[in-house]
Each structure stands twice: as C-alpha cells, then as structure tokens.
Amino acid sequence: MAASHRTARVVSPVRPRFDVAVWSYMRWSGVLLIPLAFGHLAIMHLINNVHVIDACFVYYRWAMVGWRVYDALLLWLAYIHGLLGLRYVIDDYVHQPGLRRGLKGLAVVLGVALLTVGSVALVGGVRVTELPGGC
Amino acid sequence: MKVKLRVQRFNPERDARPWWAEYEVEVEDTDRVLDALNYVKWHIDDSLTYRRSCAHGVCGSDAMRINGANHLACKVLIRDVVTDGGTITVQPLMGLPVIKDLVVDQGPFFQKYRQILPYLINDEPPPARERLQSPEERARFDDTTKCIMCGACTTACPSFWANGEYIGPAAIVQAHRFIFDSRDRGAADRLRVLNEWFGVWRCRTIFNCTMACPRGIQVTRAIEEVKALLRSGKLG
Ligand code: SF4
Ligand code: FES
C-alpha cells in the first residue's frame, strides 16, 4: 500500500477568529505604518519644524484631500495598532481577571474617545475665522 | 584551567532568599559545565542540588541558566561559556518555582504539555500493517520531533516570564509535531487549545526560544507555522 500523498487537508476553521484577525491586522498595519509614520516624521519634523507649523500650515495642507486621507490612515492604523498592543501588555502583566477586564474596557473607552476627537478634527478642518493674519 | 563557578543556591528549609556560592574548580576547557558541577558535588560540597540523568543531551533534565542564557549543562563546553575572568555563573531556569538550588518545579511545564494532547489521535480503523507515510510527509514535522522537553525554550521566553499562564514554546513545538503528522487527526482539537488566549497569540516572536533550544529546533518557526495554520485552516 502506498502512503497517501495528501497535499492539503482542511481542518475545521477554529473559532473564535478574533485573535487571528488581530494578528493579521498587527502585521498589515505595521507594514503600512512604516512609510506613513516616517513620511509624517519627515514632513513635520525634518522638512518643516514646530516654528513653521501653525494653523495656516495645516489649513493649506488639509486643503488637499489626499493629505487628509494620509492623516486619517495614520491616525486609525496607528491608534488601533497601539490599542491592540496595549491589550497584549495588559494580558501579559495584569493577572487579576477583574482588573484585567476593567483596564481593557477603559482602554477601549479612551481609545474611542480620542479616535473620535481626531476624526472630527480631520473632517472639520481648520476654521477660516481662526486663521492668523497674512495667512 | 581554573574556573570560578558562581552558583545561585537556595534551600527553602534554611534560606530566606537565594544566595551566591563560589567554587574554584580545575577543569579542561573541553569539559562540560556539568563536569564542573559534578566536581563540586563530589569533592567540595555534596549539598549542591541539580538534576541530571543521561549526561549526554538526551533526557532533558539539566537545562539551566548558564551565564544568563539557557543551556543543557551536559552539552555546553566550559570554553564556550567561560568569561575573561574565568567565571561561570549558574542559575536555575527562570519562570518556574525553585525547589532547591538548580532544581525547579517542572509541574506547571508538564501541565501545559498535557494540554496539547501529546499523542497520536486517529480513530480510523488501523490498516493491516502500519500507517504508512511518505518521506516528504515525515520531513514536514521532522524538526519538532527532536524536542527532548528540557524546558529551555519556555523558560527563556519573556512572554512566559510575564505571564505564566502562556502555554509556552515547548508545548507548541510538541503540538506542531502531531498537528503536521499526516497520520494524525487531532489537529482541530489541538488548534482549539492553541487559539485560546493563553495559546500561540501570546508569542511576540522574540526568538529567545530558538536561541535557547539545545537541539537546534527552529522553535519560533514552528510557532509561526501554527499561527499561519490557525489563519488558513489548511494543513499543507
Ligand atoms: S523545543 Fe528545544 S528548548 Fe524547547 S523543550 Fe524542546 S528541546 Fe528543549
Ligand atoms: S543530563 Fe540528560 S540532557 Fe543533560
């Protein structure tokens, strides 16, 4: 009898899939964040600097929708990547089940709040009345 | 050559905390650290306590922390670990409770081993002779068959240090050995365990396990293969 030459066996997909999704997300967002974060660093800290960057700078930058998409991607990818990282840290170091759940809940609430603030700013843009003279 | 052996000692019946003992030992540079420990036990201080059995890197009982990295004392040569000053530090494995001196409680470690069902699972009626397997199918899990359950990998893992509930690299290596065996049908059961929050997802790809393994097993690779399988659901 010849040995069976199976090329692929399917094992029933394991549930829940949440950690599988998190794992994939961490990798994909990580890869995307490399150019996004370094691009941001270059524009905001190397090419320009804190003395140049004011509401006027942001107004003109965000006038181009592409930059808003860039910033939105950076905000969401990085923030969720960070929150999921925090989840790992909490699971690693907090060993009391109640406290662990509480801290994770708190992280989600604060995370959603900050993501909302960031998103509102991105959509709303800079108020023209707030712009400095000569802008 | 003369080496100074600094051994972390602890006797729960006497000591409030671990302390360092120092022994001057005359050794060959091609001797193993176990030879130096044996010399201390046989000629200097017979209360020094450690596990060893085969003395040839097969049984896995003498994994310990030598100069800050996990090794089998019976496999690592003096010349490969000795520092410039001629000192070698020896400590028990980290992350498991110390019973005495270099002996740790392996109970929690083997508890995790049992969780991944470390035996062939196959309810299909057995063939007249043996369950045949092609050389390629055998090669698929060859690396993880080499594991001797010494615990060097799991106790070198920072994730395990932080959270002792993590099932740990050794158990995952053992699970890999059966999951990727073409004769086995228990993959789904094992994957269910490894998908738990204390399973493979606690691995942060730090690679300490791979560096620690005295058998040269690509431990991190095995763990990543299990993660990839959890994602795809397809056994290649
Ligand atoms: S994988 Fe290597 S280090 Fe880990 S228990 Fe097996 S032999 Fe020891
Ligand atoms: S004594 Fe058996 S592996 Fe070292």
Largest interface, C-beta within 8 A: A-B, 25 and 29 residues
Average pLDDT of chain B, rounded to a whole number, is 96
Rough shape of chain B?
Answer: elongated
Number of domains of chain A: 1
The overall number of domains of chain B is 2
Q: From the structure provided, what is the oligomeric state, counting identical versus distinct chains?
A: heterodimer
Q: How many strands, what sense, and barrel or not for the largest sheet of chain A?
A: none
Strand portion of chain A: under 5%
CATH topology label of the largest domain in chain B: Fumarate Reductase Iron-sulfur Protein, Chain B, domain 2
Q: Any idea what the radius of gyration of chain B is?
A: 20 Å
**Termini separation of chain B (Å)?**
52 Å
Rg from alpha-carbon coordinates of chain A: 22 Å
CATH superfamily of chain A: Fumarate reductase/succinate dehydrogenase, transmembrane subunit
Structural class of chain B: alpha+beta
Task: Tell how many strands the DSSP assignment of chain A holds.
Answer: 1
The parts of chain B where pLDDT drops under 50 for at least 5 residues are none
How would you explain this protein's 3D organization?
The complex is a heterodimer of chains A (135) and B (236). Chain A is elongated. The model of chain A is unreliable at 1-7 (pLDDT under 50). Chain A is mainly alpha-helical. Chain A is built from 4 helices and 1 strand; from the N terminus they run E-H-H-H-H. Chain A has helices at 18-47, 55-62, 65-93, 97-124; one strand at residues 9-10. Chain A has a single domain, classed as Up-down Bundle (3 helical TM bundles of succinate and fumarate reductases), CATH 1.20.1300.10. In chain A, helix 1 (18-47) crosses helix 3 (65-93) and helix 3 packs antiparallel against helix 4. Chain B has 236 residues and is α+β, with helices and mostly antiparallel strands. Chain B folds into 2 domains: 2-104, Ubiquitin-like (UB roll), CATH 3.10.20.30; 107-232, Fumarate Reductase Iron-sulfur Protein, Chain B, domain 2 (Orthogonal Bundle). Chain B is built from 10 helices and 8 strands. Chain B has helices at residues 33-44, 78-81, 107-115, 135-139, 142-145, 158-162, 168-179, 187-194, 208-212, 219-232, and strands spanning 2-9, 19-26, 63-66, 69-72, 87-91, 98-100, 103-104, 234-235. A 5-stranded mixed beta sheet of chain B has the order 2-1-5-3-4, with helices on one face. Chain B has a two-stranded antiparallel ribbon with strand order 6-7. In chain B, strand 6 and strand 7 (103-104) form a beta hairpin. The radius of gyration of chain B is 20 Å and the shape is elongated. The mean pLDDT of chain B is 96. Chains A and B meet through strand 1, helix 1 and helix 3 of A and helix 8, helix 10 and strand 8 of B. Strand 1 (9-10) of chain A pairs antiparallel with strand 8 of chain B. Residues 52-55, 57-62, 72, 74 of chain B line the site of FE2/S2 (inorganic) cluster.
